[in-house]
# Entry
Amino acid sequence: SQQGEEDPQALSIQEGENATMNCSYKTSINNLQWYRQNSGRGLVHLILIRSNEREKHSGRLRVTLDTSKKSSSLLITASRAADTASYFCAPGQNFVFGPGTRLSVLP
Amino acid sequence: EAQVTQNPRYLITVTGKKLTVTCSQNMNHEYMSWYRQDPGLGLRQIYYSMNVEVTDKGDVPEGYKVSRKEKRNFPLILESPSPNQTSLYFCASRPLQAGSHGYTFGSGTRLTVV
# Structure
């Protein structure tokens, strides 16, 4: 089972700025999911993008998927302090999670 | 409310004393899974179950047991806990075909073994 590798490991931005985090994986997938985890809490499913989709939106979230490069990105626009969390990608059906990206949004 | 309920939330125990962490979901999901989360290592799958009486090992099953006698419940059993099992544990469930829903996670159990 493959694990997504999130990049960067940590990201610190000011409120109102956009935050971009990336995920790379190794083998072909049918879909890829992004999750958020607030400190010490369970992961919350954010969005799923299928292999035949290149971009998907949900509120302030924009996810892209480039199957040729085996990579995905998560963009959070107009970030808020409440977006401070760790973000994880899970490529494919096996739901293997990497170390995640720790996002800090400073007021 | 659709949810995965884990108990207890916090647990401190001594080496060798058997313990059980309970997990229950109310969404009629076939697939349930246990993860442990350690700093810098992400979430690692311990065991999973695709339906009643069907369980299988994940990536780090040593020292753990599970059972799936009913669809809603998936307890995690540590027969003889050791300090290296100190971790944050999560139970999660989803439909067998993930579709667009992904996992629903429990709130976590922080276990300390002294």
Q: What stands out?
A: The beta strands of chain A are 5-7, 10-14, 19-24, 31-37, 44-50, 55-58, 61-66, 71-76, 85-91, 101-106.
